[in-house]
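Hi P.,

Sorry for the delay on this. The queue was packed all week, but I finally got your sequence through. Input first:
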Amino acid sequence: MTAPREPSDRADVCIVGSGPAGAILAASLAGQGHDVVVLEAGPRFDPRDRGRQLERALRPEFDAEEVWEMGGARDLFTSSGSHSYELNQSRVKGVGGSTLHWGAMTPRLHPEDFEKRTRYGVGADWPIDYDGLEPYYVAAEREMGVSGALSPFGGPRSAPYPLPAFPPSYSDSLVAPAFDELGIELHPIPRATNSEPYDGRSQCVGYGTCAPVCPSGAKYDASIHVEKAEAAGARVIDRVPVRRLEHDDAGQRITAVRYTTPDGTTHRQRADHFVLAAGAVESIRLLLLSASDRYPDGLANSSGLLGRGLMEHPVVTVSGRLDEPTRQHNIGFHTSMSEQYYPYDRGPEGTIILQPSNTAGPTPTEAGMAANSTIGEMISGNLDAPLEGTDWGDQLFERVAERWSDRHLALHAWVEQFPDPANRVTLDRSKTDDHGDPVPDVSLAFDDRTRQTLERAEAVLREILAELDASDVRAISTPDAPGTAAHHIGGLRMGTSPEQSVVGPTLQTHDLSNLYVSSSGVFVTGGAANPTLTIAALTLRLADHLDNRLS
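Then the structure:
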């Protein structure tokens, strides 16, 4: 039986999006007895289908987007910047949002990230500080089930991680001596994956396909909090893209959101308060689509900064070969990192995270195909030449092991990018989605400061590989053509001044008194740390604020 998609008669809070921000907020507010409605553009995925999704992730005929049913007219976008941005590879529309396929790394921002202007004269200061957010970091780690260990870097902690860290992988143990010799300290990666049973969920059982799909449920995804929200009385409606926000005649409050159901019917959901939690890009797009006579440039845009200052974490990767097996692809996630180069104290060279990879080179499936095919180089540029022949079984395994998988190694580094008004999200009115609405256009480029930091990062990675006596050392992504970590940051900047920001310190928009945004879009600067834990911490802080307003 199909769940009804008509609007609720009343709602204290209407949340747009059911990713980590929307789901955690809904669970917290519903748990406090408030009436909550969550509107999600994508479908509700049945956990019993994880096996099918796992098969899609492993089969080469499916790409990453198809595992979670992304793509098509619903998800159209354009990329007009000098960096070609593949938006759909880094997001999922569905109950649980992009945590359905994320890597689950959950480092905190550092104290200095909140005070870049004051400390170093670069970037900008946040209107909140690390100490004020720290209790919410602790709460977020408990809510998500973070496995970790104390690090020599970063800010102070008021409580330990709820779960012990995962041990270093085999290949991490191979590279650790080189890090030690160069005086670079490795430490465990905090990650929202159960190292032991937690919150009614299994510990990790080693499927090795964490991104894009965890069949065991050991990796946190926001559908966990959706279930908690619904158990507490919240209503979560799937496949209902919100297309417009409507405000009152005075232009001071949102009165309703308009959404469309799969049969094409449009409804209006009213509420006392509204929260956009649809990710940075889609939240910006929705505010731009909601332009009115009162706000011709989009809602919450009196500053003119809506969509501006988009940031990413650009990535350089350097690979090589060792003279011994490295056992890549045996686990599906990275286990060690170094934040030694995180402090911004080297002029233009600062705020770097280093990470050994456990997934270097093509997957075993790709290597097996390449072993009996002339398309080997097309499958992976890491193969010197296609492996030809008709080997099967043990012979095929030996060829793959000897020629590829057991000796490959890669190191990653990603860096901070400061906000630039030219990097932005706008509407591309020449292209429309399945409902006839303009699609988002992402314009992203990297400046000289960012490239200098990437160059420093690449030099460190090459030093490490040289210390390992690695052969066939080559850059997979470079400072001139970096990859990205798929982190959409900025464009909905937080601040105290309505002239210089979109939302205030409580995430309330300056222009509309009952409209909030919970997203990495509100970040003032991005640091080098993955953003999801900070999103969760800010969301729990917002939940306290809204609970007080509603009480």
